[in-house]
Amino acid sequence: MKAIKLLNQMKKIRNSVQCTKEITPTIVSLFSIVLMFLGVLLSCQSTELKQPNILFIITDDQDAQTLGVYGDTYCDTPNIDKLAWEGLTLTSAHHMGAFRAAVCTPSRCMLMTGRNVWETQNLNVKWPPLDYTHKVEENYAKISPDDPSYYSLPALFKRAGYYTFRTCKRGNSYEGANLLFDERYDKTNRDAEDENGSQWHADKVIDYLNRRIDQPTDQPFLIYLGFSHPHDPRRAKPALLEKYGAINPGPPMRPNPKAPKLPINYLPAHPFEEGHPDLRDENSVEGVMTKRDEATVRNERGKELAAIEAIDTEIGRVLEKLEATGELDNTYIFFVSDHGIAVGKHGLMGKQNLYEHSLKIPFIVKGPNIERNRKAKGNIYLSDVLPTLCDLAGIYIPETVYGKSFKSVISGEIETVRDVINGVYSGGTKPGIRSVKKGDWKLIKYDVMDGEIQKTQLFNLKDNPNELLIEHHDPKVIALTGNTPKPNQVNLADHPEYTVKRKEMEALLFAEMKALNDPYRFWDQK
Ligand SMILES: [Ca+2]
């Protein structure tokens, strides 16, 4: 704005100077040079002011450690690796938790509203009817500022002039927000073939980008591209299954040497009932059911990586098309998952726990002015995404938001947006599981099965990043994982030298539960 004012003032001066005629031609041309310089300055500024596009890619149930940038080298993900190489990877990103078994639902509600887990309890999470026809303007006309969806991601971006596009699985999300995307597609695709696999969602985005090529427009876009894999059933094409030593659905009779090795925090069973009997994800996953033997877990991990590589291929197709639009340089590209997943870690198969593999998410962002190949902690939640996207697009951040913009982490000014990270699982017996992290320390508490199970775990994540337990020291487990834990790689909650640390973390957890309006209390919280 300042540059525009200055330019106008200069033009006025030049006009008045040219009118006086006594001024020499040299002075007039000097003014012209200054004007030219200001014009260049202004055009640079207007490029910077152009609203950026957002391509937000989200996978379903993905442990961050499946990706090379987080340390696992099994899975071939050249396109995701390239995003990480060209952008920023957050090493401490979380989904915060869930109060229902379908962890996806609160996770996606937090993403769409910027609210914390407990604040998403009364949102409209109905599934769209099978005969649903999308009429965005009618849907938008029905909402008022009293409706939470008025401040949801698609509504905020629609009001800011964006074209908002969504393709994702059916259900398990905030329907109030889904109703407000300009364009929406819903299909849960977990099969191997293209039409019922990850390709279907990529095709929808590619169709849209082709339209932008055919009919160029200045309208910025927000594309929400949600894949339904690697959530089970993890069905993949034969060539990919072969590559990762897996069969579909499994389990095989014996371990395939080509299958990914067991994770070092693998256990044949969780040491205690974690509080959700008959949970689908722990008992009914295709090809696994209640089995946790080496052949079954390695086969399932092979299927998981095959599904992730299939997603990576589709991301590559989308990015190639985005480049063809000529809009790649003005697009922020995010790659995240809705939460993590165990797939054999700690004897668990699902995400209904608060170990790092399930609480943390992969989080990569690449875009205008983001430094290449950088890692930062971030200490973020999915609730921070909405305010951050608003911040990047110059949209006001609504007061209903709990999350914080981490634009300053993206720009490299700061390393983290908060010191303390909470975790909630309250989808089974109550109150359930809670965790709190600060610095290197993490406390997890279980109060489940009507008080039958009351457990506390204390980990130093710097010394014990995989949250190994005494059960991981069992020679039979060591023989399977090939990993001999260090003596201090155990639950430290009952070790006398950590009594003070435990007390401190217990107090912190209680304070955080109160601050989050957690409706439950644990057996020892007064
Ligand atoms: Ca999920």
Give a structural overview.
With 526 residues, the chain is of the alpha/beta class. It has three domains: 2-48, no CATH class; 53-253 and 281-287 and 296-340 and 356-419, Alkaline Phosphatase, subunit A, CATH 3.40.720; 429-515, no CATH class. The protein has helices at residues 2-20, 25-49, 78-86, 104-113, 136-142, 153-159, 175-178, 198-214, 238-243, 280-283, 294-325, 356-359, 385-393, 407-410, 475-481, 499-515; strands spanning 53-60, 88-90, 93-94, 97-98, 163-168, 183-186, 221-230, 331-337, 363-366, 374-376, 380-381, 420-425, 432-438, 441-448, 453-460. The strands form three sheets. An eight-stranded mixed beta sheet has the order 6-5-7-1-8-9-2-10, with helices on both faces. The protein has a five-stranded mixed beta sheet with strand order 4-12-13-14-15. A two-stranded parallel ribbon has the order 3-11. Helix 1 (2-20) packs antiparallel against helix 2 and helix 8 (198-214) packs parallel to helix 11. The longest helix is centred in the middle third of the chain and has 32 residues, at 294-325. The N and C termini lie far apart (57 Å). The relative contact order is 0.15. Residues 1-28 and 38-47 have low confidence and may be disordered. It binds calcium ion. Calcium ion binds at residues 60-61, 103-104, 231, 338-339.
